[in-house]
Amino acid sequence: MSIKELKTLIAVADFGSISAAAERVFVSVPAAAAQIAKLESEFKTVLLNRARKPAQLTAQGHALVVQARAVVAQYGELYEAVSSSEDLTGTLQIGAIPTALTGVLPKALLAFRRAHPRAQIRLEHGLSPSLADRLRHRELDAAIISDPGGPLPDLEWTPFAEEPIVVIAPMNTPTMTDRELLARYPYIRFNRNFWVNRLIEADLQKRKLPTNLVMELDSLEAIGQMVRYGLGVSIIPLSSKTFLKLHRLQAVPFGKSGMMRSIVFAQLADSGKQRLKAAFRECLIQAGGQHAVRVALLAGQPRR
What we know:
Elements: H1 3-15, H2 18-25, H3 29-43, E1 48-49, E2 56-57, H4 59-76, H5 78-81, E3 90-96, H6 98-102, H7 105-115, E4 119-125, H8 128-136, E5 142-146, E6 155-170, H9 178-184, E7 187-190, H10 195-206, E8 213-217, H11 220-228, E9 233-237, H12 242-247, E10 249-253, E11 260-268, H13 274-299
Parallel strand pairs: 3-4, 3-5, 7-8, 7-9
Antiparallel strand pairs: 1-2, 5-11, 6-9, 6-10, 6-11
């Protein structure tokens, strides 16, 4: 029996089938099925009712999952148990939204590496709703997401940075306000299901801003290219001026006072690796404070 096999069993419980579990733990379906069969042989009991499609956990399977979660959590604490607060060891699995990857995160990672060279951070990107879901399923130790704007079951978070929400337009566009840009040019919407879009849509409705929606995209890079070639304007969160330079764009603040969104460090309230996460959170807070000065200058640029 190994930790990998226990993690596969937990994934079956969380996602309802061997095929879904295999995708989550990054193995083939036959390999995941073999891991469950090995556990059944080890414990001499049936963990899955294979007569049903998809196969479902038996009572014994559910009972083992409860203990497996505790074992996996304790396994993750082993490195932290033998490390000092000055020289932490172990691995953090962190998920992050795309803007953080090009904004505040690189400086925080560098500071963490210098302070704790024996610790490791494994980083992957995703969108806030999916990262929050993966936190709940304990596939991540922590996540860098946008402020959800309301409570999320089982999660707690710490704000550490802010990003301005701006209207972007091609570089050669005449100087205008956000209202004028949205009234004059087609509107390319950042996916309506993203949390940040709740803020955007609420302000559009509150100020009764007219828009001519022509497309809706998930990718900030794709939006940047569409706007660059004059296909419309868009409203996005901005992590740095590099994005504007790369796509040859200009930006004006969105909202009467320049709307901002908070970026937070989120984790399960009862999760482990607390010392590692606290150390990384401190690096994020320090980097976020430095980052805020730069984006504040952008958000405060003159408007007509």
